[in-house]
Amino acid sequence: MATAFDLAAFAAELDVLRAEPEASRWHIERDNSVPLGVLVGMYPASAPEEQFLARFRWDQLTDPASLKFLNLKSRSDTDRTAWPKCPGFRPGNLDACVSWTKEGHALHPDWRTTDKASFESPPNPVAFVVAHLQHLLDAHYGGRGP
Question: Are 84 and 69 contacting, i.e. CB atoms less than 8 angstroms apart?
């Protein structure tokens, strides 16, 4: 359960995220169904018509976030076409096998002890994951899943 400190830190993180230079491209809203969650609408630079809704949730801000993509209308997290095709994303499995996600670490427990893929909590974890996702969309977008 999130402590009062966690909640205050998360609110401050959302302020950091909204101050990012790229934030004008994003639609940011709090995921009120969990204490530490945010929904971010974004798109690849090469395909601005392709809108994606990413949901990030943390158990603790010092751990990797869970990442899911939601259907824009229903907000369902079981729509494979809601996922972009990017390195490490597995729309068919509805997960992201990347070192900065909770799902990636669940798939690869060995990453906890591997220097290349271990997770060290960044100073601004919310801005960190959103910036990483935006970079993948801008540099490696390959269409929609599956």
Answer: yes
Compute the CA torsion angle 109, 115, 116, 119 (nearest 10 deg): 60
Has this prediction a pTM greater than 0.85?
Answer: yes
> 61-94 pLDDT, tens per residue?
888 999 999 999 999 999 999 999 999 999 999 9
Angstrom distance (rounded) from CA 3 to CA 45: 37
Inside any domain, residue 53 = yes
Q: Report whether 70 contacts 64 (CB < 8 A).
A: no
Say which residue the tokens 């018509």 belong to: 49
Query: Which residues pair with residue 144 across a beta bridge?
Result: 84
Q: What is the enclosing helix (H) or strand (E) of 21?
A: none
| Helical pair 125-140 and 4-19, crossing angle rounded to 10 deg | 40
Residue 98 belongs to domain with CATH number: 3.10.110.10
The Cα 84–Cα 107 span in angstroms is 19
Number of domains in the chain: 1
In a domain, 50, yes or no: yes
